[in-house]
Amino acid sequence: MQPYIEGMTNVNDLPLIHVDSGLYYYEFTQKLWKENLFYKQEEDYFLSFDPLGNFRMGEDVSDSLRTMFRNSRAVRIQGDLGDKFSFESFFWENQAKMPRYIAEYAATNRVLPSEGRVKQGSKADLWDFGFASGYVSYSPKDHLNFQLGHGKQFIGNGYRSVILSDYAFNYPYIRGTWNFGGGKFQYAATYAQLSSVNRLPESTTPEATFKKKFGTFHYLSFKPNPKLELGLFEGTTFKQYNDTLGSVPVHFSAYSPVILSSLALNGFESANNVMLGLNASYRIGKLTQLY
Q1: pTM above 0.70, yes or no
Q2: Alpha carbon 291 to chain centroid distance?
Q3: DSSP 245
């Protein structure tokens, strides 16, 4: 389950991870590519600050060589306080000219897929948008972790998982993760406040907000060895808004930490959407993974 929890993860067991220990960096490139720009590390804490950027330009060959670009500026602050608390915070400010089909989607819905709310820039097909993400992590024991954050989760394999993808926009969440059975089992329960692309009826506010949904995700994985993983997933999206009644309370099963309890209490035909998933993956060498 991504993002990985560093204290529960052996980096060398992750596929396609290369630990760069080369000595071919100059002092400038060492700082630019391998180190934090500013950091302070003592025996009982670590703090760092980094500016980040993403600047790119291209052309759409299927649309009369339409020029596209994106420039993003960001800051990241992260730290460890003792051996139990960690935190991280991002803020991104972006300006972009997208492919035409994405720009038309933004013009209609005033949101960008995976990027959130947008406003029109100085030109018709130029979009400005910003977003923040971060979390606070607490590990009372080596095998137990709790997180409160605003971001995304990813369960499964591949570039875009069909179980739980990180394609959605950032959302507030609470997550608990428990490793047991000598590290061969991991159980994670996530509770999230989600938004749809449909807005609430217009009111006195300048811009109507989006209809809310509540999401609960349970994932139980079994790794008998570093190469093989088997997983069972249950995800439920609970209604929080009814077009006739307005806001409605979430079904009590949304707060259950037990996997398959939502299916037992809601079934597949209720107003709350339940999805089950099975995940299996096997790593062959360092470069190949079947899933």
Answers
A1: yes
A2: 21
A3: T
Cβ–Cβ under 8 Å, residues 45 and 78 = no
Q: Is 183 helix (H, G, I), strand (E, B) or coil?
A: coil
Secondary structure letter of residue 287 according to DSSP: T
Q: What are the two backbone dihedrals, phi and then psi, of residue 253, each rounded to the nearest 5 degrees?
A: -70, -15
C-alpha span between 1 and 232 (Å, rounded) = 12
Q: How does DSSP assign 10-41, residue by residue? A: -GGGSTT------S---HHHHHHHTS-SEEEE
Contact (CB, 8 A) for 157 and 148: no
* Integer Cα distance of 9 and 280 in angstroms: 19
| Nearest-angstrom CA–CA distance, 110 and 94 | 15
**N- to C-terminal Cα separation, the chain:** 14
**What are the structure tokens assigned to 260, written together?**
């398959």
Cα radius of gyration (the chain):
22
How many Cβ atoms are within 10 Å of 275's Cβ, its own excluded?
16
**Residue 263: predicted pLDDT:** 93
One-letter amino acid for residue 152 of the chain: K
The tens digit of pLDDT for each residue in 31-62 reads 887 889 999 999 999 999 999 999 999 999 98
Token digits of residue 60: 């759409």
- In the numeric block, the tokens 């960008």 are attached to 112
CA–CA gap between residue 103 and residue 92 (Å, rounded): 20
Kindly indicate the confidence band of residue 15, based on its pLDDT and cuts at 50, 70 and 90: low
Sort residue 16 into left (φ over 0), alpha (ψ -120 to 50) or beta. left
Helix count and strand count (H, E) for the chain: 3, 17
